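Structure first, sequence second, as always.
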């Protein structure tokens, strides 16, 4: 009996020993390699690393063009400001292909081409500075997932290109948070995704002084919409094209956006199904429209849009529109909801409440709705929209007409009529103050427009 107990204990210890041995082998498979302690260059460390290894690079300047092929590695510098990968004006500083790579705490500079070039990979860049590169700071065609956080991209031929229409779309999610992207000559953030199943998060970034688009998100096919694009607390200033350009998102949610001094539209959105803009939200000094949108459900609250070359808001082929508690001023016009061509008239209802629309050079509110749709226009101040032929409030409904309700509005000093309703089958006007308009107070056309 004593011998059997000893035998059982012996077997148990043997099993435990084997298990611990396997565990130690597993742990040993993920090593930390130190540069220059173990290898004098980062490239030699990469060449001798295996999947799962971490390469820790001590403070110093490393004049290298690093290539990582088919390995999943973490490469970490000792200090972002003093651990430097210097391309010395040649090639790409870091080239990644068919790999999963995390890069953090480096300054990457002086690439002849790209600071970081990645292809068919998963890429995570955190707490890095990429500067003075001949082309984009980061160029990532045909990518998988991308994360860029807490980094500075500056003085390069462009900022971040995540895939490219001219090469191949990305097939993963993009997360861009807490970065500064500035002083570049190309697009700042260009994200081009396949569409279904893909999501984009762009939060807490400052993007300034760039010659083309600041943020551009696009999709591969017209029917393959990106699932969602979420933007929070971004600042965009001084760019040559649109501040934000969006095409093909099922849901677009923007909160806390400041745009100033852009060459074209502040925000351009086409084919988005749902577009929600939340405060704080401001656009100032856009060369084109403040917001130019085609097709989505549109909601904007507590915004200020001013000093734009075109309308503060131009919304064509739209669905429902809600505009509340906002200021549209000193622009080429206030709000256009609908378009010149009847096929592009809005396909939903409009709710316009508690806004100030003033000092614009075209119509204050111009609303063109499809047959049977309705408009509620309450508690607005529409004043000094003084361009020739400019109405304070103009509402046109096609076909069988629809319902228009106007209550507690002040309409003053318009270039043409104060209020003009055309095709409004049922109208309710209560307690509106209308004065000093060039072509009279109110025009209501009882006959329905021809379809």
């Amino acid at each position: 009996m004593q011998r059997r107990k000893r035998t059982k204990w012996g077997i148990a210890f043997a099993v435990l020993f084997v298990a611990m041995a396997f565990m130690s082998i597993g742990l040993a498979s993920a090593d930390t390699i130190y540069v220059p302690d173990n290898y004098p260059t980062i490239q030699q460390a990469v060449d001798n690393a295996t999947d799962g290894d971490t390469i820790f690079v001590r403070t110093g300047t490393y004049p290298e063009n690093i290539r990582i092929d088919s390995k999943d590695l973490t490469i970490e510098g000792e200090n972002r400001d003093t651990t430097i990968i210097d391309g010395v004006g040649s090639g790409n500083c870091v080239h990644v292909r068919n790999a999963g790579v995390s890069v953090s705490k480096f300054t990457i500079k002086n690439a002849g081409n790209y600071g970081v070039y990645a292809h068919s990979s998963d890429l995570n860049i955190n707490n890095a500075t990429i500067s003075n590169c001949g082309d984009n700071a980061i160029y990532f065609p045909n990518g998988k997932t991308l994360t860029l956080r807490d980094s500075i991209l500056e003085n390069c031929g462009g900022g971040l290109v995540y895939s490219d229409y001219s090469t191949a779309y990305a097939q993963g999610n993009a997360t861009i948070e807490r970065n500064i992207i500035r002083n570049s000559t190309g697009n700042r953030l260009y994200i081009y995704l396949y569409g279904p199943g893909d999501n984009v998060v762009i939060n807490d970034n400052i993007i300034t002084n760039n010659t083309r688009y600041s943020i551009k998100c696009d999709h591969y096919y017209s029917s393959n919409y990106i699932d969602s694009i979420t933007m929070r607390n971004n600042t965009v200033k001084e760019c040559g094209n649109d501040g934000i350009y969006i095409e093909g998102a099922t849901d677009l949610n923007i909160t806390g956006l400041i745009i100033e001094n852009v060459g074209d539209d502040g925000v351009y959105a086409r084919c988005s199904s749902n577009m929600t803009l939340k405060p704080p939200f401001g656009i100032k000094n856009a060369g084109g429209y403040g917001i130019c949108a085609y097709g989505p459900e549109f909601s904007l609250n507590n915004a200020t849009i001013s000093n734009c070359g075109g309308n503060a808001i131009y919304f064509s082929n739209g669905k429902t529109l809600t505009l509340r508690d906002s200021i549209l001023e000193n622009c080429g016009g206030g709000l256009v909801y609908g378009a010149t061509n009847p096929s592009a008239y809005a396909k939903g209802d409009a709710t316009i409440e508690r806004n100030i629309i003033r000092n614009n050079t075209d119509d204050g509110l111009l609303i063109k709705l499809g047959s049977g749709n309705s408009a509620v226009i309450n508690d607005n101040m529409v004043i000094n929209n003084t361009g020739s032929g400019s109405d304070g409030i103009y509402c046109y409904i096609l076909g069988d007409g629809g319902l228009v309700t106007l209550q507690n509005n002040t309409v003053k000093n318009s270039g043409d009529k104060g209020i003009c309703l055309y095709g409004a089958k049922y109208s309710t006007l209560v307690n509106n103050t209308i004065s000093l308009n060039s072509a009279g107070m109110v025009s209501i056309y009882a006959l329905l427009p021809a379809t």
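Margin note: The helical segments are 2-28, 42-48.
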